[in-house]
Design goal:
The chain is an alpha+beta fold. 21% of the residues lie in helices and 32% in strands.
Length: 194
């Protein structure tokens, strides 16, 4: 039996065969804006009733926001409010939020979407103008302050937008649309520089 099991083990992966993140290493810089693909992160799409939020917040180590257009961060993990019972949880510290939710008895649905999404950073004095080249949302600091988050559109694509600083945004999009979003933002950055 041991010989049969030994024959079924997969051969070691070749160093030339490795999964690379979409758009790995791409960036562009214009006069007032830098557009850059961020390193991979762990992500979950989390759905839960309000009664489960406290238990999930405790397990995740970050408070799930309850107000529209808000986020909260702690220890490299960010929770973005996307709806009354929906959050996007991003972990940039290398921890697995899906595993953290696995032991929670409270009603919830957590789905790993780490390979579905990519993140693009848009920073600089023209960051808001760059995004507004294709996003109709008011990105003034009064309307969309630091920590604000929303699901919106950029051109013809749905994105999740997080303001990380006065002149910095994180744009989350599906990897199948990532080239379109990156190109759109790159062209918008050149327009913002004019």
């Amino acid at each position: 039996m041991a010989k049969a099991a030994a024959r079924k083990t997969a051969p070691a992966a070749s160093p030339s065969v490795e999964r690379r993140p979409a758009l790995a290493g791409r960036s562009t810089t214009a006069a007032a804006v830098k557009v850059e693909v961020l390193p991979p992160a762990e992500r979950i799409s989390l759905r839960a009733p309000e009664a489960s939020a406290a238990a999930l917040s405790k397990a995740l180590g970050v408070t799930l926001p309850k107000k529209p257009k808000t986020s909260s961060s702690k220890g490299g993990r960010t929770a973005l409010w996307l709806g009354p019972d929906e959050w996007l949880v991003i972990d940039e510290a290398g921890n697995d939020p899906l595993a953290d939710c696995a032991g929670v008895a409270a009603l919830h649905s957590a789905v790993g979407i780490s390979h579905r999404n990519i993140a693009i950073s848009v920073t600089g004095a023209g960051a808001a103008a760059t995004i507004n080249a294709g996003c109709p949302q008011d990105l003034s600091l009064d309307a969309f302050p630091v920590g604000a988050a929303s699901r919106t559109i950029l051109g013809k694509t749905e994105i999740v937008l997080l303001r990380t600083a006065a002149d910095a945004f994180r744009v989350e999009c599906w990897r199948s649309f990532s080239d379109y979003v990156f190109t759109f933002l790159s062209e918008g950055s050149r327009d913002a520089a004019v």
